[in-house]
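Our platform keeps sequence and structure together, in a single record for each protein. Because each token names a local backbone shape, the row as a whole describes the fold. One such record is reproduced below, unchanged from the form in which we store it:
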Amino acid sequence: MTLSHPPQHTPATSATLGSLIRGHRLRIGLTQRELADLSTISVRAIRDLEKGKAQRPRTDTVRLIADALRLGPRSRTALEEAARRGQRAGGDVRRLSVERAAPPVPLYPLVGREAETGVVVEELGSGAERLITVVGLSGVGKTRLALEAAARLHEAGLPVLWHSGDGAAAGCLRTEDDLLPRLADGCARFLRGDGDAGDPLPELADVLGAIGGQGSVLVLDGVDTGVLDFGRLSGLLRAFPGLRLLLTGERPWNVPGERLFLLSPLEAPAPAAGHTDAAAVRFFLSQLRRVRPDIVPDERTLADVVWICHRLDGHPAALGAAASWLTVCDLSTLRNIVESDPAPLLDHLAGGPDGSRLQERVGRTLAALPAAYRTLVGDLCRVGDGEFLLQDVVRLTGRTLPECGRLIRDLLVSGVVRSSSDGGRSGFRVLCVVRASAGAAAAV
């Protein structure tokens, strides 16, 4: 076994900080944990220094490590000089990292979100908004929209830090760069107020300082806004005037300065309208080509596709799950199943035993609603196949018009209903996936 302190023919002053720390540590027989305990520095910091991930340690950090290693004057001077070399080189390294700070690569093309993406990009890119929260029902495409917006902002010259939360969809390839994803994750922990998260602001200042006067974008995808600390957000935005935040989640943060962006399902007009180029139809056809490239979208095929898209309310995850069933049935059979009982089709056949778990996630959204809202949704499911007007809510609840307006707005924000103009009037529709989940819950 060979210890990794600097070779004898290499001057100690030319060795890297990490190799010096590791060599001295192994020479006196300390583990990283023991060195951390002796120096009062975290094990993670020791590990990052030895691997070269941390390029700019503080002077106090170097002194504590030197004391713990019991270094003599010559070795201590070499350690301090190695730290200064890393600090001088750190700016260029970080500038290079920032220049390649790009969001993860999406696995699938974007379909039908041109207008929504343009609004998010314009508002964040211009700095008109510094905090945008994209909300919508599970599976509606929040992550894909954020990926597209982040990619366009990056192309416009804005570095992007990306954090994937517990609620993020698995539809992208995340970069393995050491510095930036770790920094984005640290910012997310900071905003959650995690006790052991540490303070990412000095490191964030180092990275953003390399950008000069440019702005930057921090994306927190699939986060639970209910656990985020607004006071820490305020401090973050004050400390970095060029920083903009893009969040995706199932509920708004409801804090001052938040720009709430409601993402509805894709456009799916009634079959009678004959919109074969609607966004939902284009999305379903893209799924169809992946599953059954042998099916030619002729007039009859398009008629079935338009009907299925409308019946499933243009909900992307529902359309993707339904399309997966074309591996075991033809399109006309699929339409018949959707017409009779679409609930079984909401389990994606390519998702293993658990399927896409779409109904389960939608069920959690319904369960989180106040009891009065759940009762109203159940009543609305029995009104015209889920389609209703404001007057229907007034009649069903007996509440005043302003109260009913707020009820509908809350249901729109939660994603369980969407706007509908099929009848030529401004109405609303309880999503098919919600009706299926509500029906399953009632049957238990």
